[in-house]
Amino acid sequence: xxxxxxxxxxxxxxxxxxxxxxxxxxxxxxxxxxxxxxxxxxxxxxxxxxxxxxxxxxxxxxxxxxxxxxxxxxxxxxxxxxxxxxxxxxxxxxxxxxxxxxxxxxxxxxxxxxxxxxxxxxxxxxxxxxxxxxxxxxxxxxxxxxxxxxxxxxxxxxxxxxxxxxxxxxxxxxxxxxxxxxxxxxxxxxxxxxxxxxxxxxxxxxxxxxxxxxxxxxxxxxxxxxxxxxxxxxxxxxxxxxxxxxxxxxxxxxxxxxxxxxxxxxxxxxxxxxxxxxxxxxxxxxxxxxxxxxxxxxxxxxxxxxxxxxxxxxxxxxxxxxxxxxxxxxxxxxxxxxxxxxxxxxxxxxxxxxxxxxxxxxxxxxxxxxxxxxxxxxxxxxxxxxxxxxxxxxxxxxxxxxxx
Length: 404
Prior knowledge:
This protein is of the alpha+beta class. The chain has eleven helices and 15 strands.
């Protein structure tokens, strides 16, 4: 398994594009993206748990009832949420794609991201679709990735190559996510493509299983978005024997999927609004994986800890505090805590109590852009990893006038 170029266009049969259609006022930013498969693809998606859901999610859920899709269309700058005509607009977006790309309306996954409660005018999308479809190409992943960005500061994309049944297979993904990121699912937009041949039932099983340890373990600010989802399309053009049940081929597919999703998780967490650091909380020695997840999530979501990491302050007491209110079944008198980065590792807590450590060394470790928070509960074999970021002054600046 190796990382390659191409993003969502790396897999056979996929093209993509992104343009500035005029949804956003800034003409230098792309705001409409499209991914298209040459043939129908087995597809699945997971959605935000927020009771307030964007109209595109409702339309996509209906379109994916048969587990088949051919295209993903997404606009940025407007979430199409809490609008009286939201469903109508989302359906019209699908129809516009279908007419221009000569596919079925129900084979389109539709997504929107941006400001909530602001009417989405269909005219820019309708007027830009001809250009968008005409520009679809094998090098279009980069433009598509840019077209779904909101407050993101970097594009998020990856592609990998691997083998199943002796056939070369590829998988790629693009994502957006910087604010309103919090478990559980989906809290971001992620679009994954692959040329693996796999049944709709198994691809749904794969995605539903993977997100429990990946996207459900990411938090930036504690707000669960209304609009976001993760979807995957598999068009089968790698020509491997179709995966219809669990086994070696399915395991390889799961490993590939996890490689893509973990990479995108880290990119999303590290690009949190105003963030300067990627935080990776690794919990081991829990009584079971569920307990480890509860602890990891609680720590990574702690605003006090996030602020301490911004200041490179080895305030490990905030970690113990977060563990204590997490609700997890933990013996706090067994907990060990260390901080780690490329500058080294330092133990700051042993058996629930502080130990002598060099504040200077700790500061050097915590000044790095990627920090690991290592927690051992010293109970059994349960483990989990969660991703987040520091909390900075800029987070407030960005969200103080996000709408205006």
